[in-house]
Write a structure and sequence with these properties.
OB fold (Dihydrolipoamide Acetyltransferase, E2P), 5-stranded antiparallel sheet, elongated
Length: about 140
């Protein structure tokens, strides 16, 4: 999973996560559990398979776009790994193999916000796990 430190900002009905490199709004159904964290730092997590090339975005995805620089690409057959630099942080995306992204390119990516994760920055436990469980953030 890719992890970004983020400050929860906004209001109770429209919170968003602000990293140094990008801002993403939180889906309304996920917002209530983040309200107590407004003004605090959390860890925003997104899995590589939940990051898409905007050109090949599946129709069902509720996405927020983020700019990144491609560092390395790896063709893996039915998918392509993009090693990215977002701000000053590295992350990984598993995208459609038809992407035209190449090393050195600035690209627009789509984060599937239905699959975002947030973790308490102090305890590293998941915030609002839907099944009542908690999970630690780990690379």
């Amino acid at each position: 999973m890719n992890f970004f430190d983020a400050v929860v900002k906004g209001s109770a009905d429209k919170p968003y996560l602000d990293t140094e490199a990008f801002q993403v709004p939180v889906q309304s159904e996920k917002a209530p559990v983040l309200v107590p964290y407004i003004g605090q730092t959390v860890i925003f997590g997104i899995r590589p398979e939940d990051i898409h090339d905007v050109e090949f975005l599946p129709a069902h995805v509720r996405a927020q776009t983020v700019r990144a620089r491609v560092d390395v690409t790896e063709m893996m057959g039915n998918e392509k790994f993009l090693h990215l630099i977002v701000g000053e942080q590295r992350c990984l995306a598993r995208v459609d193999p038809r992407t035209r992204a190449r090393a050195g390119d600035e690209v627009q990516l789509a984060f599937d916000m239905d699959h975002m994760h947030t973790f308490d920055a102090q305890s590293q436990l998941a915030i609002g796990a839907s099944d009542g469980s908690v999970a630690a953030a780990s690379p």
